Every structure is written in structure tokens, then in C-alpha cells.
Amino acid sequence: MPGLQQQIELTLANTFESVIRELTDDADSLLPVNPLVHTSQHAHFQADAAMSLAKRLKTKPRDIADAVVASLAGDDLFSALEVAGPGFINIMLSDTFLTQALDEMQAEARFGVEKGDAGAVIVDYSSPNVAKEMHVGHLRSTIIGDACVRLHEWLGFTVLRRNHIGDWGTPFGMLIEHLLDIGEAQATDELSLGDLNTFYRTAREKFEATDEFKERARRRVVLLQSGDADTLRLWQLLIDLSQRYFVSVYERLQVKLDGTEFYGESVYNDMLDPTLQELQKLNLVSTSDGAECLYPNGFLGRDKEPLPLIVRKSDGGFGYAATDLAAIRNRTQELGASRILYVVGAPQKQHLEMVYEGARMAGWLQPPASAEHISFGSVLGSDGKMFKSRSGDTIKLADLLDEAVRRAGEVIEQKNPELPTDEKTQIAESVGIGAIKYADLSSERTRDYVFDFDQMLALEGNTAPYLQYAHARICSILRQADDMPVLEGEDAAQLILGHEAERALALSLLRFPTVVADVRASLLFHRLATWLYETASNYSSFYTQCPVLKNDDKALRDSRLRLCQLTASMLATGLDLLGIEAPSRM
Q1: Residue 42's pLDDT is what?
Q2: pLDDT higher than threshold 80 for residue 405
């Protein structure tokens, strides 16, 4: 089923075409017509294509608008049509169309949203570093990446998750030597407790303080890169302990990362030489000061000289560019990816664009395959600077989640103290984690946003708790209904949309397919958040103005119960696409 706006636009476009063909013999030069359609709280739509067409037809806009309205008379889609101003067309949709559209939407698993095309979608996100604490800087990549995964999986795509962790390079020399200094048992204890920062910081301090340790660390790097068995065993120990910690954070954050998708830099080591060799065969690399460089088309430095991607350094080692090129080659040529999403901070924009262009030059990134940088801004504190603790340290992600859940628990205790303790604990987890996610996803991802616990946990305004409470309130109504009508299928209660608040809620629900299609294309999840908030607000107006359980008219009561049930299902679905739970009680 096409979205509501698409149906209206198609009907208007066809009608405009018919009218134009009647007005001129040169209609093909004016077609196709794409009317601009706007929705409002009052279920009106406007199309202003008549304004621009009138100039080319040398006639009055109102004449075109009058002809369009005359042609649309009797169409079941509309209940009222009128020409306003110089040639605008005001349209009101019919109750018959709205109820039929809601029936069709409720009958489909995805509420009228079309299933995705064939092809694998790869989402590259989160990407913490081994033996380093996950901090607030990892928050946006993890949350936005998870939303990308959830959306594409719900649409029916095959989704491959890639957590490109930092698990290779010179820091591992000092980390392994520090591990040997304190002993495997103590290192295992420290890292198992999640105290990665202390472990890493101590190793770094020793590296900077003593030449003897620094020399040992450098020798250890050589052993690691040459495949020394004992060194590789210790390296793997660091990775395993770190990944165990990462998974514990992901579980708290309720994201779809369970450890099976860890693809660190080391995974691509064996692909680096073949990648360079293929680039050499294609004559795409040249030597500069001993380094093998690829110069992507269109990238110049401040001196107007071409900017290089250094594939292999002058010392024979491979850098980030080589790993990224090898990864994109693997993802398109071997995994058959049709869409690759790199959920990485905005500062990486130029590097990624150069990698994409290099991959296109090599023939690895060709239509229909695409690679997209899903960039995002920073998380700021109330002072407008990078969000840090009072002591000035980077905030641990685990501590941030604990604080959110603690504060959410206080809100739940005040709102519904009679709930069982276990249930309050579970709800607090859903509300606290949901609040953090929604504060991020409801902000335009390309911009910075201010982290504010009080604002994100508020029960009023555009927040997760407001949406979760709206869902819980609907669930409460459905639980209280002592004579529940049939809500789905052929025997479902007939929908009646006699009140303006019912129509406004219906229109909001019917916009869902258009919103999802927009978010799928743009991956701007704040647009889905806006739809959720508007829908919850329209439901609040409906709830206030349209009695449900205390309605003596059974047909109207059953209709409103059905509208409640559909709203609850769609709110829960929209929240789930953002990775947020929808409790049935709050």
C-alpha cells in the first residue's frame, strides 16, 4: 500500500495531467506535474502546482484549480474540495478513505511500509579500542548504528553488522609488556572488572617514563607482527577480556551487538597485500618518498597538490587507508553488499570520501552498491563543551547508563509506587536507557546536542518517557476494557472517525509509511522521533476529547478501542526501530 501522501500526490498528478491535456496541445512539454502536498492538524492538504502551470499556459491559476476540482468531484478520496486565494486547492480527505486506509494498514505486518529490495546492507558502527574503556564518545555511533540495523532488518534486508574494533598496532607492544609485568592473573582480574582505563593508562605512563620499557614494547610489536605464538596468545587474551566487557555494555544499552560481529583491524591483515597488488595492477598507486600512495580524484590539499591515501608506508607497514580499502573491497566483492553504512563521527568525512573514491576508481564500489558516511555531531555538556565529568575526565559509558537508570527509578517510584519492586527495576532500566537513546536520536544527527538528564527523563515534551507513558496509558485502557471487541481481521470493529481528534490521530498514523521511507533514504532518525511525538500528542488530544471506556455508544466505544490498539502497536513499533522498549506499565 503506498503511503497516504503518495496516494494524494498520484491522484492530483493524474488529474492535473488530464486537465492540462484539455487546455493545450503541447501538454507533453509541461508534464509530469508534481503537486506540492502539505498536511495539517485539520486534515487539509494543499497543492500549488496550478500557480506555476498558469504562467506557462497563459491563463489564470484559479481557472486551472477550478478545472482540477471539477475533475476530482465524486472521487472517494475526498470529502470536500475548494479553491482558495489565487489558485490553491484545499482538500479534506473522506472518512471512507481514511477508515479503509487504516484497515489496510492494520492488516499488514509493516503497517503499509514496503519491504526492502534484495541485497545485503552492512553497518559499520561502535568501534571501541581493545584495552580501553567505552566512554560517552562511543555513544552516538553505537545508538545510531543500532537504529540503522533495526530499520533495515525490519524492512526485510539481510543486515551484516561490523564492529570495527581497534585491535592492532603499536600500542599492543606496551599493553602486552605491562601484562607480563603484573602477571596474567592480575591483568585478567583488572580487565574482567572493566577497569580498562587504569590498565591502559599505567601501560602508557611506563612507556613514556622509561627507555627500557619503551624498547621492550617496540620489540614486542615486532614479535606480534611476525606472528610469534606466545605474543599472539597474550594479544588474544587482551582482546577476549576487552570484548567480554564491550558485550556487557552493549547488553545494558540494549543494542544488537553480541560479540559475533567483532571485525577488528587484524581481520583484514591478510587482505592488505592482495589489495595493494590489485591497485598496482590497475596502475592506481605510485611511490612517494618510499610510500605507496593512491590519489583519489578530486581531492587537493592547501597547496593545491593531490591528496594521497597512503596504502603502504615507507617502512613497509600498512595504515588505516589500506585497512579501509581492503574492507570495502571485501564487502562489495565477496560479501555482495548493496549498501554500506559507516556510522562514524563528522571529522572522518574527508578520509571516508577519499576511500570511497579510491574504491570507485578500482571498480570495487559500483552501482547498485553504495557507501555512505552516516556522520554525527558531538555530545556536549551544559557548558556547550565536550561532555565530561566534574573532574574533567571522559565519562565512562557504563557509569552514564547506571546514572540514567537510577534517575529513572526515582521517576517510576514517584509515578507508580505500588508496582512490585522487580517490575519497577525492569521499567527503570527501559526508561533510563530509552531516555538516553531518544535524546540522541531525536536530535538531528549531524548536529551537536547537549546531554541533560533532567530534560531527557521528563514526562512531558519530546522525550522517551513521554512516549513510553503514552504507550503504557493505552495498554492500561485496553486492560480495563471488560468487553473487548475484535480489533483485527475481517470481524474487527468498524472504525468511526466523527470527531476532529479522531481524524487528526488517523492522519498521523497514516503518515507512517511516508516517514519510514524518508528515514530509510536519509537515515535521519529525528524524523521518526518527530512522528512518534506528534502521534503521541495527537493521541493525548484524542484521549482528552473522546471518551473510550465511558462511552455509552458501543459502536463508537469499540471503534475507539480499536484506534487505541492500533496506536499502541505503531508507537511500540516506532520506538523499537529506535531501539527503545515500550513498557505496558509505568
Answers
A1: 44
A2: yes
Question: What phi, psi does 283 have (nearest 5°)?
Answer: 60, 40
Dist CA 53 CA 36 (whole Å): 13
Please give the Cα distance from 185 to 110 (Å, whole number). 51
Check whether 209 has a pLDDT greater than 80: yes
Distance spanning both ends of the chain, measured CA to CA: 35
CA dist., res. 491 & res. 36, Å (int): 38
Residue 307 per-residue DSSP state: P
Report the C-alpha gap between 278 and 267 in whole angstroms: 19
Residue with cell 581497534: 166
CA 511, 514, 520: angle at the middle one, nearest 5? 135
Task: Walk me through the domains of the chain, giving residue ranges and CATH numbers.
Answer: 4-93 (3.30.1360.70), 120-166+265-373 (3.40.50.620), 171-253 (no CATH), 397-577 (1.10.730.10)
Q: Buried (b) or exposed (e) across 204-233, using 16+ Cβ within 10 A? A: eebbeeeeebbebbeebbebbbeeeeebee
Q: Are 238 and 176 in contact (CB under 8 A)?
A: yes
Could you report the per-residue pLDDT of 146-165, keeping only the tens digit for each? 999 999 999 999 999 999 99
| Strand pairing report for 291-294 and 309-312 | antiparallel
Query: Which pLDDT does position 41 carry in this prediction?
Result: 43
Please check whether residue 525 is in contact with residue 439, taking contact to mean a CB–CB distance below 8 angstroms: no
Which own/partner contact pairs does 486-491 have at CB distance under 8 Å and 24+ positions apart?
487/561, 487/562, 487/565, 487/566, 488/106, 488/107, 489/107
Q: Does residue 383 contact residue 451 with C-beta atoms inside 8 Å?
A: no
Is the separation of the CB atoms in 124 and 141 below 8 Å? no
435 pLDDT more than 80: yes
Q: For residues 527 and 299, what is the distance between their CA atoms, to the nearest angstrom?
A: 33
Contact status, residue 481 vs residue 493, Cβ threshold 8 Å? no
231-283: per-residue pLDDT in tens?
Answer: 999 999 999 999 999 999 999 999 999 989 999 999 999 999 999 999 999 99
**Beta strand pairing call for 285-288 and 120-124:** unpaired
